[in-house]
Structures are given as C-alpha cells and as structure tokens.
Amino acid sequence: MATNPAGGPAIFVIFGAGGDLAWRKLIPALYHLFLDKWLPEKFLILGQGHRHMSEAEFRQHLRQGVDKFSRRGKTADEKWDLYASHISFITSELDDSQSYSQLAKMLAARDKEWNVRANRVFYLAVPPRLIGTVTRELAKARLNQDRQRTRIVVEKPFGQDLASARELNRVLTADFAESQIFRIDHYLGKETVQNILAFRFANTLFEPVWNRRYIDHVQITVAEEVGVENRGHYYDGTGALRDMMQNHLCQLLCLIAMEPPLSFNADEVRNKKVDVLRAIRPIPPEEVHHFAVRGQYGGGWIEGQQVPAYRNEVSVAPDSATETFAAMKLFVDNWRWQDVPFYLRTGKRLQARISEISIQFKPVPHQSFPATAVQDWRPNRLIIAIQPEEGILLRFEAKYPGPTMRLSPVIMQFYYREAFRTRLPEAYETLLLDLVWGDATLFMRADQAEAAWTVVTPVMEAWEAARPMEFPNYQAGTWGPEAADDMLARDGHHWVMPTFLQCQEEIPVCRVTMAPS
Q1: Of these residues, 61, 233, 248, 290, which one is catalytic?
Q2: Residues 168-199: pLDDT tens digits?
Q3: Closest C-alpha among 65, 15, 79 to residue 45
Q4: Is 248 a catalytic residue?
Q5: In terms of residue numbers, what domain contains 212?
Q6: Which residues, 6+ apart, have CB-to-CB distance to 328 below 8 Å?
Q7: Is the dihedral of CA 96, 151, 47, 190 positive or negative?
Q8: What is the pTM (predicted TM-score) of this model?
Q9: Phi and psi at residue 400, to the nearest 5°
Q10: What is the CB-side half-sphere exposure of residue 208 using CA atoms within 13 A?
C-alpha cells in the first residue's frame, strides 16, 4: 500500500513453486502486474521445486494456471512469451544446503549482470513445518544479510495456537530481522479492506460518529458457499476458528476499531492494530459458551445441487469434531468502543459467498414522527461490502412519496466497478507489489500475530476440552446453527441479511458514481 513507491530491480524466489498457491495466485498476480507495467523493467521469477522439470515445462505449467485463473482470460502468445522470459526454475530439495549456495551464486551473477543489487523476495509457499528449514538454509548461504533489500514471506496459518506462533516467530527472527519478515494475509490486499482506512481517515463525515455514543454494534461476516473441497486433510486439523477467525476476521475488526494513525508509516498503522487486539476483553474459560458458538454442516442443497455433510467429505474423519462454523462476540475495552459488541461469524456451506462489515447506528434519541409514519422504520446502517461485490452502502430513512408522512428505508450505494470503471486488482497483486517496494503496512508483525492468537485461545481451549455432541448442527445452504442466532438474540440483536442479497428486495437504491473533478 505504498504511497510513494521506490522500486528497483526485483527477484522473486518462490520455494514450492510447483504447488497450488503459485499456480493459482502468485504467478497470475505477477503476470497482471507485468501487463500493467507495475513491475520493474529488470525482474526475475525463480521457481524452486523438488520435481524434475525443464524450464520450458515449468513455464508451460504456469501458463496453464494463468489461462485458468487470470482475471483477463487466456494469455496472448506475444505477451506471455515476454513475461515467461523472466521465469526460471531450479530443481532441489528444501534441506539441500548445496542448492542454497548455488542459489546465492545465481543471484549474485544476476546482480552483476544488471549492475545493481536487486530487491530479493523469498516467498515460502511451503508447508509450515518446512519454514524453519528454508530460513536456516538461507541464513547459512548468507542470503539474509541485506536487511534493506531482502524480504521473506510467510503464508498463513501462522502457527496453530499461541505457543506455536511464538515458536515460529522465534525461528524466523533467529535468522532474519523483523523488518525483513512479511506475514501475508491476502484479505488485507482487497481494495475494500484497504479502503476502510481511506473511508475513515480521509473524510470528516464519519469519524465524529465512529464511537460508542452513536454505534450500537458491529457485525463482520465472512461466509462461504463451498465446503472443504480438496482440503479435507488440512481443514480437519484446523477448523474455522484457526482458518478464518484468528486472522481474516480479527484483521477486519482491527481496521474498524483502530484509532487514527499519526501517519501511514507501516509500524504506526500496525501499532494501532495491535492496540485494538490488546484491548479486546478476555473471555473467561467458564463463560466461553456465552461468547462463542461453533457448528458443523450436515448435508443439504446449494444452488440446486445436493452436497454432502462435512463428515462425508474426502479425507475427513467420519466422527470429526472440527468446526466448519464459528461465531464470537467480542468487546474492545477502551474509550471509543466500551460495551459496543462486535459480532464475528464465518463458516462453510452457508447460504451465499459473502463478506461484509455491517455497522449499525443507534436509534434517534427521540422519535417525533407518528406511529403510522414509522411502521417500516429501520436503524441507519453502514455496510462495507468486500465480496462478491466491493463497495460501501449506507441505509437511511427518507419520506415515501405521497400526501402523508411515511418513512421508508433507502440505500445509497457505491461500487468500485461502477464508480471507477476499471478492473480491480486481485489482493495478491497489491501485496506482491508492496513486497517489491518493501512496504509492510498490510502485513502482520510478530506481536500482532501473537495478540490475535491470544484473542481466540480461550475459545479454542474450551472447545478442545469438550467434544461437541450435537454435530452436525446446521444444514448446508443455511446461515449456520441456531445457537449463533441465540447469542445475538440475548442482546436484543439479530444477524443482518447480507446487503448484497437485501438489495434484491424492494428497497429504493441511489447509486453513487465518481464525483466530477
């Protein structure tokens, strides 16, 4: 998210380049950056894998991935050939010290050829258990020495609990400085997620009411229609709390609740996020059932297709106690947010693929309209839509046309695709470019990752200590278990229908377009 990028030649070394992440996400994202001329003129993508492949075979494999997952469709020969000329491949094992020495020589030779020291990005697209192996070998080959130009990227999950996250931080910082470590969460690269900062801190209209005096509660929903697909083996040892709540949803909460940063210096922004996590009220172990709900999907129907129960998915234990749905109620104990509930939920096989943040404002202090005028009255609500559409919507009351006074809700909406008429970059495009520029604003720091684990640890420990007896407890194609509804009902609230679906109702809409200069 650099505002004043200082680029230069760049080398991406992708460990595990023959895997799914590089094929689906990294190489297509870099291809888009290349087409849009964001990458420096001198760059190299060096893939590492243990399978024997020629460079031509590797490039063809990557092209198939770009053709399948690129937001621009299939590649054109001329443009692909030019891009592919920057791609190389080396076959090696991750624990082979000699291959790292050879890698160091290759990078040094490229620097000499370019007559400049390139920025080096070591991307660890490898299983978590191999991260320590790669970092140690890089250090042995002295590939960690240049703190200004060398970056190492670690994918989530960042640990499986607080203890393992701390151990992973210890392993990483044994060989690399914290300023060199980029813990990536692709959610933070989404345009609307970044726009939360611009929306809050570049406009005078909203910040004065962004507090406990005016906001009643906040809901954050990240819902998926899909099941575990081909990730059953991984997911059955992880679950929704670890896979989504600890990282994606906690990150969104931080952006909504953080105080204004003094500047957009990376550490300043990240300091404010850590402040939020540290202010979250701890959940006493004996009260976890009041603040958290878990669920597991049974069989059901999604878009007219019958889908199996979680326990019938491939590589899932037939008596699995892993949650596929998690909901939490959190409080941020500080002057701005004291006693404002933040409701978070995420799950698989829900009714729709939707991610959004709903900020509900308190009712007006005095209702001066007659009862007949407010029969359809609804609270003001601000919605930040993340997917499938990216935009911001505001629901407010207006007079319905006619001779009598009758209030009706209307929605003012802004969508990126309509307002700016340009293709939105994929999240990985933004984050990979930040890696070239060395901007860590959208990446997690060690203390932030550990603080997020601290938030969910009481829930995780309570769930592991007591096996759920009611699983499966929600049908595929619904919005989750009834217990999640009950958690909000006890506070006099309910989960809101996602606005993207709600806008299909008969609610008048005012579209917002880009303002003229």
Answers
A1: 248
A2: 999 999 999 999 999 998 888 888 788 898 89
A3: 15
A4: yes
A5: 189-425+441-512
A6: 245, 291, 292, 293, 343, 344, 345, 456, 459
A7: positive
A8: 0.90
A9: -75, 135
A10: 3
